[in-house]
Amino acid sequence: MTKLYIYNSLGNQKEEFIPIDSSHVRIYACGPTVYSYAHIGNARMAVVNDLLTKIIKKIYPKVTYVSNITDIDDKIIKTSQDLNVPFKQITRKFEKIYNEDMINLGVIKPDIQPRATEYISDMIKLIQKLIKNNNAYEKDKHVLFHVPSFQKYGELSGRNREEQIIGSRVEVAPFKKDPTDFVLWKPSANNVPGWDSPWGYGRPGWHLECSAMSEKTLDIPFDIHSGGVDLIFPHHENEIAQSCAAHKNNNPKSFAKYWVHNGFVIVDGEKMSKSQGNIRLVNDLIKSYDGEVLRLTLISAHYRQPLNWTISAINQSKNILDKFYRTLKELEKIEIPDKIDIPEKVFNALCDDMNTPQALAELNKIIKNLNTASKDEKIFIKSSIIGAGNILGIFQKNPNEWLNYGRSEILDDKTVNKLINERNKARKNKDFKKADEIREKLKNKGIEIEDKENETIWRSI
Hints:
Radius of gyration: 27 Å
Number of strands: 15
Structural class: alpha/beta
Strand order of the largest sheet: 4-3-9-10
Number of domains: 3
Number of helices: 16
């Protein structure tokens, strides 16, 4: 069996992935808060986890991948109030758009995609356990987790107490026993969404939601918990505290064994933010670029490194895809087996902490000697591209469609083929001036022709 190595943020080292139960691997990723369109940072998380799941499915017989939808949150409530529409109208709309956008990026929908609002009763039960275990307390209709009650708090992020206080996003409030304590349940006014609970009408804290949904859908401990690097503190640190304390276990691995975090996406060297006006939305990008171009751009850098999102990077990805699709076009008459394996060196790179740059480099080496390749070597090259593409989520299109062969928005097929036939006749009669004039005429109409051994083919440029 192939060995998979992943970088575990819990301990900050690359480790061999050894599942809790090799017959069933379980993965949980923190999904989007659906009050607006997803940006490329959200997309990077989804693409990275899609790739990770595909890799693991190649090694283990059963994998369950869960990624949640946060459909109750202060931002959702504010959007609902600003637009004067029910909050579920907002969340269902943007959940649908998110899933459609991710499909465009080649992301397979998670096996389970729980909505936070459908697990409120589980969240209430979890809070009750924490209160019973003296890890949480009620004050002024709020329920808070008492951070000093959990000895291992800070083990994931490596933050000491002073750093926890400074870095905590939790609002400072007079009813807190400790500045680091965070909200498990908060009251809702009558005009704000909420649910009945032992502590009054209210709603859950964000951190609590993932603890409840991951345990309910996967049971604990599960194998991998993932998300963006910005979630390490406080979100994932708080999840560990809640889930472990509820089960009276101080070991963070009693919740999740491996913690995988992808790096930030920056835009033209700057942090993505509303104030900078540089937030890049997937829903906008897919109107200008094919989803495969965007996906390749998202996996072009190692997942743990920052990704600089630039027009140049997007164009480079388009050029790389064009190159491989041209290779597939060259090999279109080469028949390959129905069962295609991933090239060994490509898969080894992916199993080395998802080293996508190395995997792409190995694939480049395979096509390097196409022009001098024998028939068997061509079969291997074509199989390698398709096999690697299946796991990377690229090369899924028909090469003719990708490269625009036989398609023009300006001239109809009949006109193009008539001109090509006239050119071929001129060449046969050694009237090269006329042949060049026809080629130039087609080029001016956005059509490029290529002379092959027994035919002339054309494509839009």
